[in-house]
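Lab manual, section 2.4: Encoding a predicted structure.

Procedure: take the sequence of the chain (308 residues), apply the prediction step described in section 2.3, and record the output as structure tokens. A sample record is shown.
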Amino acid sequence: MIHVHSLVELPRPDRPALLTIGSFDGVHLGHQALIRSLVNEAHQRRFHAAVVTFFPHPSVVLRGRRPSFYINTPEEKAELFASLGVDVTVTHPFNHDVANITAADFVKQLQAALDFKELWCGADFAFGHNREGTVAWLKDYGGQHGFRVRVMEPILLADKVISSSRVRQVLADGNVGDAADCLGRPFQLTGVVVEGSRRGRTIGIPTANLQIWGEQAYPARGVYVCRAWIGGEAVNAVTNIGVRPTFEADSHPTVEAHLLDFDRDLYGQTLRLDFVARLRPEQKFNGAEELVAQIKRDIEKARDILRD
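Recorded output:
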């Protein structure tokens, strides 16, 4: 897959494309259904399957949306597109200058860069200055400028539309099971293992402290069953997200994973956590002994869940 960070970086198109445009944060089941259909159609016609997405997210630039916003990093999102068979991904920069480009001018840029013959989108899609490029506008404009618009229906789960905002909300609630149902895979956090307070080692339960992207969305404070990935190796884990209230509380939540039956130095390595289930909210205990007893119970529950 070709992955570039602006339209001008694309090589001259050697064949037409079918195109979809959107933020696609999380690449959830609704996104996947659209992209898989586009890829199948494009490849049957010997076209490229192309995705144009944006970073930063338009709502971050225009409305200052913060904190803990993105479900995926831009690189993770591009990898997910590649796994779905996309041929060309453009992670286009978004800023106030881009926000002021008219829909007609942006379409002209897309046509020059991608030679697209169809634009696939949802019914509420809109882009361009003041969101003037609605589906109705695109159908009219496309009829005059050589492309069609194909509108895809949303995907429902429990009678509700799957959306990126829905995924963020269930994560904020700590409901990683619902997040996985919307994403079609476990929610994942990836970070570099950094040195922490080493308090876990002093109580016999060492943890890997993850330094995660500061704009990454993450589950509510609590204790979770996870599967940790170190390269291609999977290790069962119990993960705490929180401020460690039993000891001196941190000002910002930390992500600490205790890897079960594992005793190797991981400092500086990249660790990915797949969130399987939530065990409990974060609690303050009356000292280390009470905390250790609870963690041991958490570990046994985690083993049972992962065994099943």
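Check your result against the sample. The mean pLDDT is 93.
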